[in-house]
Design goal:
Length: 289
């Protein structure tokens, strides 16, 4: 059996008794098993969402106000607070609300063979992301579809010392929400996640985010800082300037940005992510719970 015959074939992750029996005596079979089981995202609990550290420490999903006009970037370097890594991106600018959608897509994909399509209703996704406390409107559905479409038309390249080679991928290689022949909407939308994400996550180069905390935070600087600080076991002091560059914020008034950071820190303490936080001499200090 050729386990690498098709990325989208569910048989990739099915290890038959015959293969396992051969593996006891044949090293090559052992290697095939290792390869097949590696073609799957890591598994985490339903209360957790995960992203690679390089993404959380960058301005790929920036903290700008969602109402600001979005730029179109062409193979542009993205700010990242990590000297050992680099990111280049082509596509429409992404914000923190897009990151919430991508987090949920990856969460749904984690238990499936890599590249297998994910199916869901627009309403179930809106409910999972808590985009509204009432019945979802057509506006909610349209914004969700726009976010998925935005991430489909992208090219992302990540380089890091811990990677054996750079990784390039489309954030959402495939997104189907209607029948192209008839134009009629599908009862369930279908999304595929790039197989290359498996390498980007690696064994332990990703961060666990507490979903309840993130959903309870205002989308923007607070959610960006939640991800950035979570990517460090013990966050170190960081300058306001580095933070502003890293989150992609375009606020030029230093006093205004300091106030925004102070408000975000208050929110992070409120949701029990931080024990305490303060700003002194242009440096942001935090202590995790």
């Amino acid at each position: 059996m050729d386990f690498l015959a098709s990325i989208g074939d569910p048989r990739l992750l099915l290890l038959t008794e015959e293969v396992i029996k051969r593996a006891r005596n044949k090293p090559r079979s052992v290697e095939l098993i290792k390869q097949s089981t590696s073609l799957q995202l890591p598994i985490w609990g339903n209360e957790i969402r995960c992203l690679p550290n390089e993404i959380l420490r960058s301005a790929l999903f920036n903290a700008k106000n969602r109402n600001q006009p979005r730029r179109y970037l062409k193979n542009e370097s993205i700010a990242i607070i990590d000297r050992s890594a680099g990111i280049k991106y082509t596509g429409e600018e992404l914000r923190q609300n897009d990151q919430s959608v991508w987090l949920q897509m990856i969460h749904l994909a984690k238990g499936l063979p890599v590249g297998a399509p994910i199916e869901f209703t627009a309403y179930s996704m809106i409910k999972a992301l808590r985009l509204t406390t009432s019945k979802p409107s057509q506006g909610h559905v349209d914004r969700l579809r726009e976010s998925l479409t935005r991430m489909q038309a992208t090219a992302l390249s990540v380089h890091s010392k811990r990677l054996r080679h750079g990784i390039s991928l489309s954030m959402i290689p495939k997104f189907e929400w209607r029948d192209e022949a008839t134009g009629i909407g599908l009862p369930k939308w279908r999304v595929s996640i790039a197989p290359e994400l498996v390498d980007l996550y690696g064994v332990n180069y990703f961060t666990h985010l507490q979903l309840a905390q993130r959903l309870d935070l205002p989308s923007g600087l607070a959610t960006w800082m939640h991800g950035y600080l979570a990517s460090h076991k013990k966050p170190f002091p960081i300058s306001l300037q580095t933070l502003r560059d890293g989150c992609g914020c375009t606020t030029v008034n230093s006093s205004k940005f300091k106030q925004m950071v102070g408000t975000a820190l208050t929110e992070l303490v409120r949701v029990d992510f931080l024990k305490t936080a303060w700003i002194k001499s242009g440096m942001v200090h935090t202590e995790r719970l």
